[in-house]
Write a structure and sequence with these properties.
With 61 residues, this protein is an alpha+beta fold. It has one helix and four strands, in the order ββββα. Helices cover 25% and strands 33% of the residues.
């Protein structure tokens, strides 16, 4: 992961290539963020990683 995890502004990389981008800038609704999965990446795996990162960064939310 590269970026600001606490603010939901980061990319997920594998072997130096961007696999996905997580960002709040696409939405105006509070506590909402998007996940853009790159071509060739497994969406379920990327989503699971983003959920795990969110749970670690914001425990109890």
């Amino acid at each position: 992961m590269v970026g600001n995890i606490l603010d939901h502004e980061y990319t997920i990389e594998r072997d130096g290539y961007k696999v996905a981008e997580v960002s709040k800038k696409w939405f105006r609704v509070r506590d909402t963020y998007g996940l853009d999965v790159g071509p060739g990446a497994d969406p379920a795996t990327v989503l699971a990683a983003a959920v795990a990162i969110d749970a670690m960064a914001h425990p109890g939310d």
